[in-house]
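Just wondering, can you check both lines?
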Amino acid sequence: MIHFIARHPIAFAIAVVLHAILIVLMATNRFSDFEGSTPVSVAESTAETDSETEPKAETETPKTAPAKMAPMRTFAVDAEQVQAQLEKIKQQEAAKKREAERLQEQTQTEKARLEKLKAEQKEALVLTEKAKRQAEQQRQKAEEARKLAQQASQKAEAEREKIQIARQSAEKARQAAEEARKQQQQAQQLLEQAKQAKEKEEAERLALQAEIQQREADKRRIEAESLQARLQREQEQAEAELAKQLAEAESQQRAAARAREMQDLRETYISSITAAVKDNWRTAAQVSDEAQCVIAITQTPKGMVSKVSVKSCNDAADAQFKKDAERAVLRAQPLPQPPVEELFERNIEFIFKP
C-alpha cells in the first residue's frame, strides 16, 4: 500500500478527497432525512388526529407529502454522481495503472535493450581490440614479409651480380678458348702446309731420283732445268714478297707523314687561336710575366664561341687575369678556321700566356 501511494501520490490524494466528499454527502443526506422525517411524523399524527376529529384533513395530506419525498430524491442523485465519479476515478486509476505497467514494461524493455546494447558495445570493443591485435599482428607479419622480401631481393641482387660476373668470366673464357682454337687451327694449317710441302718435296725428290735412274743421260739437264725453274719461282716469290713489304712500309711511312702533318697543322691551328686571343688581350691590371691559364672553349664551325671557361691557372694568375683572359677569347671571335675541315674541334683547350 505504501509502495502504491509512493508511486501514485496524485491518485491517492484524489481518492482521499472523493472519500471525504462522499462522507460529507452521506452525513448531509442523513441529516436531511432526519429533518424530513420529523414533519412526516407530525403530519401523519396530525392526519390521524384530523381523520378522527375533522373529516377535512384528507385535503391537507397532499401538501405534506412533497416535504417528505424531496430529500430521498436528492440523495439518489448525489449517490449516482458519486458512483459515477468513483467509477471514473477507478477507470483513471486503472488507466494509470496500465500506463504505469506499460511504462514499467517499456522501462524493462529499454533496460534490456540498454543491457543488450552495453553487451553489444562490450562485444564490439572486444572485437575491436581483437581486430586491432590482429591488424597489429598482420602489420608485424607484413613488416617481417617486407624485410624478408627485401633480404630476398638483396640476396637475389647479389646472386644476379655473381651470375653476371660468372657470365663475364665465362664469356672471357669462351673468347680465350675461341682465340686458342683459332690459333690451334692456324698452327694446324701451318703444320698441314708444312707436311704437304714436305710430302711434295719428297715426291719431287723421288721423281727426280727415278728420273735420274731412268734417264741418267738427261739427269744433269733435267736437274738443272728443275733447279733453275725452282730458283726462278723462289726468286719471283721473294721479289713479290719484297715488293709487298716495300709497299706496306711506304704506306706506313705515308700514314706517319700524314699524321705528323695533321699534328703540325693542328698545332698551327691551336697556335693561331692562341695568337688571336693574345692579339685581343686587354687589361688594366699589373700582370706577372709568369701568369698563365688553361682556357677551355666551345665553338661553332664558324668560329663563334658558345662557352669559355678558365680551368686551371698558376699562382701568378689572379681573378682579374682570368676575367681578362675570358674577355680576350670573346673579343677574338670569330676564331681562326682550321687549315683542313677535318681538324675542326668543337671543344679546344690551350695554354694562354700573354
